[in-house]
From TrEMBL:
Catalyzes the dismutation of two molecules of 6,7-dimethyl-8-ribityllumazine, resulting in the formation of riboflavin and 5-amino-6-(D-ribitylamino)uracil. This is Riboflavin synthase. The keyword Repeat applies. It comes from Enterovibrio norvegicus. SUPFAM superfamilies: Riboflavin synthase domain-like. It catalyses: 2 6,7-dimethyl-8-(1-D-ribityl)lumazine + H(+) = 5-amino-6-(D-ribitylamino)uracil + riboflavin. Its EC number is 2.5.1.9. It comes from the Bacteria. Pfam families: Lum_binding.
Length: 220
């Protein structure tokens, strides 16, 4: 579990193909790895990765085909900057929101505008994720805990204050860029709970969804 408060910006040193998977070598920059051991989790651009090797100035983690399919990592190259956060401790100050590091999909930057000292972004998520986006709700973009300031269909607005721009990779985003998106975990579980006993039914198409329940008349 993470909070979405970025601790350091690292850089991908190497991407090593492993069949259909890859091994990622990350220079962790100023991130303190003194308390990190093999098997620990580090959110890397919002993706919960397991440390399989410590290199002295960073770590190595494996990325599965599923991770590559769901995230922007499939487009990354050596030299790419990444947001880093170690898994939270029971004593960690909870400055962001509940972040699992399990990316739901991608969002695309559709506009960027400087407003005073802040940067305003509009991003567009897939239609299937739009129902989880709420004004003044939380969302995780490339591992950063952010507040949604407006919603228009599958599009949502983020206002980035100078400190966040300085301490993360978000200032590097431009129109057309894709980012890792994780919706609020509470909304995801709430959807499943609302299905009740029907959640146990198998459809052969990935299970029941709110859209399928609405079509069936269950939610009327």
């Amino acid at each position: 579990m993470f909070t979405g408060i970025i601790e350091a910006v690292g850089r991908i040193q190497k991407i090593t193909p492993k069949g259909t998977d890859i091994a990622l070598t990350v220079d962790s920059g100023k991130l303190d790895l003194s308390d990190v051991k093999l098997g620990d989790s580090i959110a890397t651009n919002g993706v919960c990765l397991t440390v399989v090797e410590l290199t002295g100035n960073g770590y190595v983690a494996d990325l599965s085909t599923e991770t590559l399919k769901r995230t922007a990592f499939v487009h990354y190259q050596a030299g790419q900057k990444v947001n880093l956060e170690k898994a939270m401790l029971p004593t960690t100050r909870f400055g962001g929101h509940m972040v699992s590091g399990h990316v739901d999909g991608l969002a695309t930057v559709v506009s960027r505008e400087q407003t005073g000292r802040a940067i305003e972004f509009w991003l567009e998520a897939s239609a299937s994720l739009a129902k989880y986006l709420a004004e003044k709700g939380s969302v995780t973009i490339d591992g950063i805990s952010l507040t949604i300031n407006a919603v228009d269909g599958a599009r949502f607005k983020l206002t980035i204050v100078p400190h966040t721009a300085l301490e993360t990779t978000i200032e590097d985003l431009s129109v057309g860029k894709q980012v890792n998106l994780e919706v609020d975990v509470i909304a995801r579980y709430l959807e499943r709970l609302m299905m009740g006993d029907r959640a146990a039914q198998q459809t052969g198409e990935g299970g029941l969804t709110m859209a399928k329940l609405a079509e069936s008349g269950f939610l009327r």
